[in-house]
Write a structure and sequence with these properties.
Elements lengths: L9 H20 L1 H24 L3 H16 L10 E7 L7 E9 L5 H4 L7 E8 L9
Antiparallel strand pairs: 1-2, 2-3
């Protein structure tokens, strides 16, 4: 005697499994923009801090560091379309003192409206660097 309720059960199970596999694949793919944005932000903050520490002129140190950070973020290789960035530079106040660069990033999340999730917070990457005293001729 066959049980009626088991008839045709393979089709719904396969459809449910396929839907779950697609959702998992999209979930894993959504990590790629976040990882790329973090990597680009780390590279930009490092470039910014290096230009900040190497500049002997405090008036131009901030401008050079900002330019280096934005050139790194706007590079063709970054592949971070849709990501928003903020760059903050605190130049050193004198020779041998510390300066800092912070790059903040915000990555739009996929399926946000569908899942009803909250907005993602801003991520931050930063580096602190000391100006090289022997290069700085600041008075």
């Amino acid at each position: 005697m066959k049980r009626r309720y088991e008839r045709g059960q393979a089709m719904p199970e396969t459809a449910l499994f396929a839907l779950l596999a697609v959702l998992m694949a999209f979930g894993l793919l959504s990590w790629i923009p976040m990882h790329r944005a973090r990597t680009a932000s780390t590279a930009a903050a490092y470039a910014c801090s290096q230009f900040l520490s190497q500049s002997p002129d405090p008036a131009h140190a901030r401008q050079n560091a900002l330019r280096a950070a934005w050139q790194t973020l706007d590079a063709d290789w970054s592949g971070t379309y849709g990501v928003q960035y903020r760059v903050q530079v605190s130049p050193p106040a004198g020779p041998g003192l510390a300066g800092a660069c912070q790059v903040s990033y915000w990555v739009p999340s996929l399926f946000q409206a569908l899942l009803g999730s909250e907005q993602a917070d801003w991520g931050h990457e930063w580096f602190v660097s000391r100006s090289e005293t022997w290069k700085a001729r600041w008075q």
